[in-house]
Amino acid sequence: MIIEILLVPVGLYLFCGFVFAIAFIVKGVSVIDEGAHGGSIGFRIIIIPGTMVFWPLLLKKWLRAKKQQHD
Amino acid sequence: MSASYQAVGWNKQKKKYDWIIFSFCVVYLIVFIGVTAYVNPDYTFETVLVRSTSTLALLLLHVILSIGPLARINKKFLPLLYNRRHLGVTMFTVALVHASFGIFQFHALGNVNPLVSLFMSNTNYGSLADFPFQALGFFALIIFFLMAITSHDFWLHNLGPKVWKTLHMMVYPAYFLIIMHVMLGVIQYETNPVFVLILGVGSSTLIVLHLIAGTREVKKDNEEFGLKQDGFVMVCGVNDIEDNRAKMFCIDKERIAVFKFERKLFAVNNVCKHQNGPLGEGKIVDGCLTCPWHGYQYLPQNGQSPPPFKEKVSTYDVKVQGQNVWVNPKPYPEGTERKGANF
To answer: Which of A18, B64, B94, B171 has the fewest beta carbons closer than 10 A?
Structure first.
């Protein structure tokens, strides 16, 4: 029963993560980590699963980095 | 190091190791499937695949967990350490194949969600003999998944070394879950005690290796240094350190590596900024201290990675009196230039 209830939010969380990952690998990753400048396409693809899991942390970093750029 | 990220940091050696790992896995699976088909021709292909991948993943997990202590006990095992990350991802991939076929065979053919079926088809959570052991394997797989997806340096940098290391130390709880997963599964499905025996030998070997390596580490950390003078501590003789190599000392809880390079001695913090690897177990390559774990490099005179890299470690004062090496354990800020000691 608990498993059935848990599967929906976990699926939603990962779906949001996937949507975020697309924007993140295109733009965000270079904003938060200078090591991504000139990084290969393979690198951007390889971080997608991790981005889907840790997306709230990366979103926070991205927003903070953008704010620092504006300041 | 922290230049542009690539998908996989391959070099000639790593490619060679990866080919060895790949070839071993293929040969293992072919031999296992072939022998099983000959001995037990009644088994379905799915069953043989589930069993072959489970034993291969378990074997790889034991090798992975042995590499750390083995490399501390004998430097000859250090090259294995360089490739441990790739071995870990390989082990996860094999475990994923095992889990996928297991779930397909046992849980995907009904009208219940396979993941729900995994937890609900057997609810004897209070019974040891009938415990739903597959759930334990599932949780271990989740840990291996998190480790595999964060095995790139990007994650080390963005999660931070502490979080990253903690996440990857979860391999030990995962190992415990796997042992229980296998043992409880064996109890329910096998009558041959050889499986329990093999697993017992594997676990015992791991425990003994970790105990030997840990005892050596504690002994080194608690080493007493008798002679002290103006903040300096006498650590060893000049000839105790090989050319282009280091000796490590733990003084006042500071882990220090003293390197010998071009007739001079330099002291830097022993802990690599990448994954806390022991710099003192590395050597000087192209004029740089090179971490034995993943090849991160630092200049001996200032503890800075050569440009364009940006890692820095603390430096220390070192002097030579007669034939003795003295080190001051008070660290300078990371990347501070020190002139070293002539001898």
So the answer is: A18
Q: For residue B105, what are the contacts with CB-CB under 8 A and spacing of at least 6? A: B44, B46, B47, B50
- Per cent of chain B over pLDDT 70 is 99
CA distance A50 to chain B (A): 5
DSSP assignment letter at B298: E
Distance between B3 CA and the closest CA of chain A, angstroms: 5
Cα(A27)–Cα(A17) distance, rounded to whole angstroms? 15
* Assigned CATH class of B228-342: mainly beta
**Residue B117 corresponds to which tokens in the numbers above?**
């079926």
The per-residue pLDDT for B78 is 80
* pLDDT value at B2 more than 60: no
Answer whether residue B107 shows pLDDT above 80. yes
Of the candidates B2, B6, B157, the beta carbon closest to that of A40 is on B6
A35/B contact by beta carbon, under 8 A: yes
Q: How many contacts, defined by CB atoms under 8 Å, are there between A and B? A: 65
Domain range annotation of chain A: 2-70
Most confident among A52-61, B219-228, B334-343 (mean pLDDT): A52-61
pTM comes to 0.84
